[in-house]
Specification:
Layout (H helix, E strand, L loop, with lengths): L4 E13 L13 E2 L1 E2 L6 E2 L2 E4 L11 E5 L2 E6 L2 E5 L7 E6 L5 E7 L3 E7 L4 E5 L2 E5 L6 E5 L2 E5 L7 E4 L16 E4 L7 E7 L2 E6 L2 E6 L8 E7 L9 E3 L2 E6 L2 E5 L6 E2 L14 E5 L2 E7 L6 E7 L5 E5 L2 E7 L2 E6 L2 E6 L9 E9 L5 E10 L4 E6 L2 E6 L4 E11 L1 E9 L5 E16 L1
Antiparallel strand pairs: 1-39, 2-33, 3-4, 5-32, 6-7, 7-8, 8-9, 10-11, 11-12, 12-13, 14-15, 15-16, 16-17, 18-19, 19-20, 20-21, 22-23, 23-24, 24-25, 26-27, 27-28, 28-29, 30-31, 31-32, 33-38, 34-37, 34-39, 35-36, 35-38
Length: 434
């Protein structure tokens, strides 16, 4: 008589889960407030409250120059000069958050020139004062000249000051003047000083101005047409110019065609007043998300590969003197590249885990991280949640069957790091003996 026997063989498969936020993997719901650029999960951007008495309520934007700060709120400008502890109301007022350009003042040194298109003012270490420079909507300071877009001639005129005198716009040979750039690309919406040229952003295209020497050597060339440009987002970040267009986020390195920056699709939505700036070797963008949810502050590395976002009420984003500033929930802040003391943003990182050999049991998760982080996992047949009470590598039992799970790590404010995560899957197989 023949027969057979069988036994159940238990096996395990270990799968290391990468902490990544590469552009091809990124989803707006998956990485909020965590930076994974070096393969370690850690707190990303933090917002440190600007200090000083007399900060006005309802702040809309904040600017800085030479140690002085300006907070714009409802048309009024409150200023805290360098070395002072409190803000006071300036006699200078603007109708909207002003455009700005960094300049050098012969007497005050580092300065920030501001304009709302109707009037101009200069912020220096000693405070804010009216300025005789023509009002502008966009500006650049390059080749020892000040270049302004003043709104004249349907926004297609570029004015320039005389050499080494940014206040002198007298139209004369060897002095100041203007260039008219009428064509089908629309208004001039931004200027960028990049690689010894001035890049002129039109609503629907980019032009390059070479302006070394006097006006006889000025040369303007078309670079490429493009989808509608949001001028307030144009910034030079490292070796690229970055901007948001109606079709998403883009970058240009001065050669060939522009390319879609990482995470481009996140912001492919109609925008009302997006703003962008460069600081700390990266690029920040304040814009509405394509998923229809609230505005977000997005930060990504200058290579365009790694990034993360924070959802919330952000506004007035700009960079001054190498720092990035924004208004967060109505409070003026300076942005820092990685988590620190400041506004306590909730941070979350999330990934989908797929069973390596079809349906099995997610037996356990092993996480090497700092105390205080929270770990959760959920599948069709159940969920588990854990809080790390101590730092180091720890194993957490799961024991839920399925072929796919969502794992999530959360933290608040300047939370600790997560260094590695491993999923352990359990399988049972029958082995037969004749």
């Amino acid at each position: 008589m023949s027969g057979y026997s069988f036994r159940v063989k238990k096996t395990e498969r270990r799968v290391k889960v990468a902490f990544s936020d590469g552009a091809q993997e990124y989803d707006g719901a998956l990485s909020q407030g965590f930076d994974c650029a070096d393969g370690t999960l850690r707190a990303g951007v933090s917002a440190v409250l600007l200090d000083g008495e007399g900060i006005p309520a309802g702040a809309e934007a904040v600017y800085a120059a030479g140690g002085a700060y300006l907070v714009y709120a409802g048309g009024a400008c409150s200023v805290r000069p360098a070395g002072r502890e409190s803000f006071s109301l300036s006699q200078v007022a603007f109708s909207a958050p002003p455009a700005c350009v960094r300049v050098y003042d012969d007497t005050a040194g580092e300065a920030l020139l501001l304009s709302d298109g109707a009037s101009s003012a200069l912020l220096t270490a000693s405070g804010l004062s009216a300025e005789s420079v023509p009002a502008f909507t966009a500006a650049a300071y390059a080749f020892e000249r000040l270049w302004l877009v003043t709104g004249e001639e349907s926004g297609a005129r570029l004015r320039y000051s005389s050499f080494e005198d940014r206040r002198d716009f007298t139209e004369q040979t060897g002095g100041g003047g203007y260039i008219d750039l009428p064509d089908g690309k629309g208004r001039i919406v931004a200027l960028a000083d990049f690689e010894n040229d001035i890049y002129v952003f039109r609503e629907y295209g980019l032009q390059r101005l070479r302006a070394r020497g006097d006006e006889r050597g000025f040369e303007v060339r078309d670079v490429f047409p493009c989808a509608r440009v949001y001028g307030g987002t144009v910034a030079v970040a490292g070796e690229r110019i970055v901007w948001l267009g109606a079709d998403g986020l883009h970058a240009y390195d001065g050669d060939g065609e522009p390319f879609a920056a990482g995470f481009s699709g996140l912001f492919a939505a109609e925008q009302s007043s997006p703003r962008g700036c460069a600081a700390g070797g990266g690029y920040y963008l304040q814009a509405a998300l394509a998923d229809g949810q609230e505005q977000a502050l997005f930060s990504f590395s200058e290579d365009g590969v790694h990034g993360h976002l924070l959802r919330g009420a952000f506004g007035g984003l700009c960079s001054c003197g190498g720092e990035a500033y924004a208004v967060c929930d109505g409070a003026p802040c300076v942005l820092r590249g990685h988590g620190g003391a400041g506004i306590s943003f909730r941070r979350a990182w999330e990934r989908t885990l797929s069973a390596p050999r079809g349906e099995g049991v997610l037996a356990r998760l092993r996480l090497d991280a700092d105390a205080g982080l929270r770990l959760s996992v959920a599948g069709a047949r159940g969920a588990r949640a854990f809080t790390l009470r101590r730092s180091g590598a720890q194993t957490f039992p799961v024991g839920i069957a399925g072929d796919g799970f969502t794992v999530r790590i959360e933290g608040d404010g300047a939370c600790g790091q997560a260094r590695s995560l491993t999923a352990v899957w359990a399988y049972e197989e029958a082995e037969y003996d004749d």
